[in-house]
Design goal:
223 residues, mainly alpha
Length: 223
């Protein structure tokens, strides 16, 4: 099996009712928190279909309870993998605030403040990239079996990433780029169109996550 990045962005249109399903996803994404949870759970269902080799048709918007459960699970998974960044940011926030308060007229304090801010920024960029790759693998494992424990098995997730770092980097970057471009096009087309552009990109990234998990599973079976 080969990764098909283009297919991830065109597959929704294979469903005769794709406009309606996409419209629902976009409308829900406008609803704070609850909408994001539901669309995240919907993405898990898309990834699962890809992993199982199902057709390219989009799931029906019917089982909102299941989508909510799956979406909450993805929220937990994301928090776990980005928890170190959150903790480090909070720990450095206090000294940065203190130095900032006392260094208004102190050039030495300004240098310390700049150093702390630079270190935090560099750590945030590097960690976000690595954690994002791990998150792609973790979400794939969750979609495959529906078990939260599989996604939170950090050792196994990191093993998958180390085996194919380029794969998960591409899934992360292509999905992120698609999110940016489609959201921008949505804004250009309509003031609130970013919601629908972002929703379409979310469908594509879910397909990519499913492809990556299936790719790893078939590669492991072939060894």
């Amino acid at each position: 099996m080969e990764m098909e990045y283009r297919r991830a962005f065109v597959f929704p249109q294979q469903d005769p009712a794709w406009v309606k399903k996409w419209a629902i996803a976009g409308a829900l994404s406008l609803v704070p928190i609850v909408g994001q949870i539901l669309t995240a759970g919907y993405g898990v269902s898309i990834a699962r279909r890809v992993i199982n080799g199902a057709s390219d048709s989009l799931p029906e918007w019917s089982d909102f309870g299941d989508y909510a459960r799956q979406g909450l699970s993805t929220l937990v998974i994301g928090l776990v993998y980005f928890l170190p960044l959150i903790v480090v940011s909070l720990c450095l926030a206090v000294p940065i605030a203190v130095v900032s308060a006392v260094s208004i007229r102190d050039s030495g304090g300004e240098q310390v403040l700049g150093l702390l801010g630079g270190c935090l920024g560099l750590f945030a960029v590097v960690y976000s990239l690595l954690a994002g790759m791990a998150l792609m693998a973790a979400l794939g494992r969750y979609a495959a079996g529906g078990e939260l424990g599989a996604a939170l098995n950090v050792g196994e997730v990191l093993r998958l990433v180390r085996a194919k770092p380029g794969l998960y980097l591409m899934v992360l970057l292509v999905g992120g780029l698609g999110q940016f471009v489609l959201s921008l096009l949505g804004v250009i087309a309509c003031a609130v169109g970013a919601a629908w552009g972002g929703a379409y990109a979310q469908l594509a990234q879910a397909h990519l996550i499913g492809q990556a998990q299936r790719y790893q599973r078939e590669a492991g079976a072939a060894q």
